[in-house]
Amino acid sequence: MLQRIFSLYLQSLFLTTAFIGGLSGVWILLRIASRKDKTVAERQAHLFDVLMIDVMTIPILSFAVMGILLVLKA
Q1: Are the CB atoms for 27 and 50 separated by under 8 Å?
Q2: DSSP assignment, residue 36?
Q3: In angstroms, rounded to a whole number, what is the distance separating the alpha carbons of residues 63 and 13?
Q4: pLDDT band at 2; cut points 50, 70, 90
Q5: What are 19-58's pLDDT values in tens digits?
Q6: DSSP count for the chain of H helices, then E strands
Q7: What whole-number distance in Å separates Cα of residue 11 and Cα of residue 63?
Q8: CB 20 within 8 A of CB 61
Q9: pTM for the model
């Protein structure tokens, strides 16, 4: 049972990381395309903000996705 839960958690962690990474990449590319950041420091600050949001969001969403996967596979 523990192995199944761990397997579901790793699966949800992978799915969430891919989804959040994709969204963050699109957000960064759209911001670069619109040229909102004029200096290198502003671009770097935005990149660090996005990475911090990713680091905080991925584990939380991973548990939510694990719950959904657990219900779907039950």
Answers
A1: yes
A2: -
A3: 8
A4: confident
A5: 999 999 999 999 989 988 888 899 999 999 999 999 999 9
A6: 2, 0
A7: 11
A8: yes
A9: 0.82
